[in-house]
Amino acid sequence: MGTRTRIVSGVMAIGLGLTACSAGAGGASPQGGAAQAKDTVTVALRTPNWILPISAPGFTQGENDIFSTALYRKLYSFQLDGSSEDNINTTRSLAEPPVVSNKGKTLTITLKDDTWSDGKPITTKDVRFWWDLVTANKDKWASYRPGGFPDNVAEFKVKDDKTFSITTKKAYNAAWFVGNQLNRIVPLPQHAWDKGDPKKTFDELTAASKDPKSYATNPLWKTTSGPFKLESYVPSGEVVLAKQDAYSGPDKPKINKIVLRPFTGDDAEFNVLRAGDIDYGYIPPANLSQKSYLESKGYKVAPWYGWSITYLQLNFNNPKTGPLFKQLYLRQALQMLIDQPTISKVIWAGMAQPTCGPVPAKQGTPPGQGCVYPFDPAKAKQLLESHGWKVVPDGQTTCADPSLCGEGIAKDTPLSFTVTSQSGFSATTKMFAEIKSQMAKVGVQLTIKEVPDSVAVTPACKPEESKCDWDMSFFGSQGSWYYPAFASGERLFQTDAPVNLGSYSNPEADELIEKAQFSADAGALQEYNDFLAKDLPVLWMPNPVYQISAYKSELQGVEPQDPMNLMYFQDWSWKS
User: Which candidate, 366, 313, 328, 316, places its Cα nearest to that of 538?
Assistant: First the structure.
């Protein structure tokens, strides 16, 4: 569900005597031979394969967003430290914060004085050009959802070269609209790309984006607004970004070159990392025991926490087990049997933290603080017994009194479920072994079925459909869901929402989601979080870090790592 692509738990630890691969463009570490090149940073990153700053289905991987953002500045950049209104990073953004009027329906936006790499000013023509492209081709835009942006806009109006306004059909919570809608706008160089017809232009830009071997030579991609330009590109290989001397933003790059270096797998990357031949990489969780070795070789190790939540999906529409999941007391009991703090600490080696509700905890919040249903097997057992269940520890718990068990639950119905989980993640396998063991102690039987793509085989469904036979689904080995700046739930937990795979539905939850989306009440998001934390549309699970980063100690400006999974290379520099 989110964009994570490379944190893998199933890698065997590598011995200390392995020989390193050939060094990348950063040289070896200062402790190990050749002097570090002080104008270049080598980064372990999968090769990006989409350059157009309009997302396309099948090309939404995180590395593409990192790549595109280095070349093309977004209208608004964000920071989640609570230091600015609507989480706007006023330094990085191309525009001033919007001015809201017309009872919340109109947002007036003024561009700053910035230029394209060819010296032409960035104006409202470039914003209008983006708008025309996405509105004429929204069915080909990965960020489009019917009824959402741009369908929810009544008028897009250019006032002058620096000012434009957007008037919505309804009055939205400004923080939601800025963080979840305006976050998609990327001004594009109208003077260099426009063919006069938005459909023809879009088709040509898309065709060029699907031809990565020409990225470094195609004149289209020479006109940029970001801090870097593309120097060289090898399909499925290294990508070199060079400092853009004509960059007009205040956050000027301090590094001359960034080399994005892909690896065939985590073991290959970790081998080169241990040898000191990349400047910024990551530690596979299974190799975290070698953290002190890397630190002794001049690396800093920094967990990268994402703006995300992780959960176990429940299928409320399963004709057999759905009636069970619809009982709040049963969901509460199941949640109390998941020892999130211990799993986070022991199985995820401290590189995960409990999820307590639908809104991620702010950075710095103590892990697990405020979880409504902490681990409590004794209370879970009591809860089941008080609702008519005959609890058989290490056996099979069944419904003894249907009048207490709940609607649609017959006598002798067992508490027996199948969890469809992701294969290839050793930490996930160990986690479910632990959860299975704890649930068995109160007679709840779990069968764990691992598949390569658990999302594909556990779709949203109707009770009468054969594909609706799944019970629980887990796809959170790398975080189930990564949010934009405003962590609302209209795509996850609203009735019939596109990613509501378990078909959870609660009218009160719907009202609170609507309130968070449309109300100006600053407390609406907290109300939504507090209700769903208690109502359990899913079972909250330990949330793994985005990755365990390791970077040369002389490399400055890497931290704090962006929780929305972007990398701002212009902040990086070598300690002199």
Answer: 313
